Every structure is written in structure tokens, then in C-alpha cells.
Amino acid sequence: MSESLITFANVSRFYGEVLGVNKVSLAIPPGVTSLVGPNGSGKTTLMNLLTGLIRPSQGEIRVLGMSTEDPSHLCRAVGYCAQFDAYPKGLTGYQFIYSFLRVFGMSHEECDQRTMAALEAVGLTGARNRQVAAYSKGMRQRVKLAQATAHDPQVVILDEPLNGLDPLARAEAIALFEQWGKKERHVIVSSHILHEVDRISDQVILLSQGYVVAEGQIQSVRGEVKDQPMQILVRCDRPSQLAAQLFQENHVVEAKIHTDGHGLLLRTTDADGFYLLLNRIVIDSGLVVESVAPADDDVNSVYQYLIGGEGSTI
């Protein structure tokens, strides 16, 4: 089982007296895992630890059963698309990927085939003979994605991979991430675009100031936040009457009529108790309810609950 997981066992990393990450213990399954947190929360440190670029100050990391202390084996299993650009001068897009593949001892034919396939996957076949330095920011981002996956790694680590991409390229990149995740690869993505994280993630890891504050599927993470009120939107024919009856219960802490006048947005500390109460009210009063749904069951809201602040700036 451990050979299909990425595991952190009580891992800490310090830069002198500065904390990178502290006491991280994780078992990450295959699929798309998103790292969420503000600048300085530890996302990039976690990714650099995974790739073996830096070593932990304490603890152990294993990637598909391999120790990150053994980079010779790790580099074949891991592809890394870093947040910042770093290109040898004068290389074309084709040469940038081809020269990387030659490091693995592949034949010319295999390197050529893989290079062209990687460029085609990110839509850069027509620009393969142009120098990377002349690429736009979005094209440079895409050629990094191509290089990170050209050797068909089982683990793909992507640090802010959507930066600089136009809407069409973003949609195509997200489709690639989803495709890789469905092939039982590990796809580790950091992003501050939380609605996109919501869309692509099988699980999330929420980081704050070097600590993991929650991890798992977003629904289960939200379920762990028991001490924070949950927002629920009820669509019904008499929202004012419903609000009056709900306020008779202590666990409903806030309720306001939706702007369209046909719904009630409320906050409750006991979601299960609320649903039971709503059933009783509907039976007793004949209230017509069109829909009942959580209004905050997403990464943005959960992150605000856990650490505070404006999730949209993460």
C-alpha cells in the first residue's frame, strides 16, 4: 500500500531560524491533490521536499516507497513544474525538452517521439523551433508543463501551474490535470485560484504558517470544522416566516432574506439539528421548499473558517 502513496512522517524544515514546514504527517493517495494557503504558508517548501531539492530538518518522506534521499531513482518517478522560470539561454522549446529527456539515457528516436508528444499535449508544436526566451509568459508556462511530464512520471508536481495562462489555455491545462489524475498518477497542484482548485481536486491540503491545518476531501474537511457556523441556503415560498421560526432555536445564529426575496441564507452551529427542524416546520406549516443546499461547501469558505482572512487573495 505504501508504494502507491506519498508519505510525510513528522517532517519539519527550517531555514536557519525561519520555519518552512513543521511536524507534517501526511499520506497522499493517487489523484489530484491541491495545496492551498497564502504566500509563506509552506506550499513551495512542501513541493521542494517532495522532489528532493531540499532535505527535511527532521522526519522522513517517501514517494511511492522511495526515499527522497535517493534522487537518482526519484527523478525518474517525479516531474516538477516550478513556479519561476529557469531556462538555459538559446534553447528552443524542442531542445529544452529533448535535452532533459537525454539525461535519462533514452535513444534519439524515443527522445524525439516523447518531445513531440509533450509539445502537442500543451499546444506548442508550431512554436517548437522558437527560442524559449522569445515565448510569451503563457507559452513558457506550457513548455514547463511539457517538460515536467515528457518522461511519463507517476508523480507530477505543479507549483502555480496556471499562472500566465489565458482562459483557453487554463481550461486545457485543467483538463490535462484531470486526465493525469484519472490515470492513477499523483498530481500535486498549488494554486491561489480557489474555484479552480475546487473543480480539479480529489483532495486538498490546507496550509497555514508552515502547518497542515486540514486535509482530505473538501466535504470531509468541511465536516471537521465543527466549531464554526455552517451557511445554508433555503429556497422557499415564505422565507420571512421560516426565519421567525428558526430563530426560536439556539443553534441558528444568523438568518437573512436572499436578495431575490425567494430564499433564506442562514448560519447554524448544528447542521444536522437544522435539517430535522426544517422537516418539522415544513410538516407543521405547509411551507413550500424548493431546495436546501450548503452555501459554503468549497475550499474558499473552508479556508476562511480555518485561518480567517480573505480567501480570494490566497
Describe the structure.
By secondary structure, this protein is of the alpha/beta class. It is 37% helix and 27% strand. The protein has helices spanning 43-51, 71-77, 93-102, 108-121, 137-149, 167-182, 194-200, 218-224, 239-246, 271-285, 299-307; strands at 6-15, 18-28, 31-36, 58-63, 66-67, 78-81, 155-159, 186-190, 203-208, 211-216, 230-236, 252-257, 263-268, 289-294. The model is unreliable at 309-314 (pLDDT under 50).
Short characterization:
The protein has helices at residues 43-51, 71-77, 93-102, 108-121, 137-149, 167-182, 194-200, 218-224, 239-246, 271-285, 299-307, and strands at 6-15, 18-28, 31-36, 58-63, 66-67, 78-81, 155-159, 186-190, 203-208, 211-216, 230-236, 252-257, 263-268, 289-294.
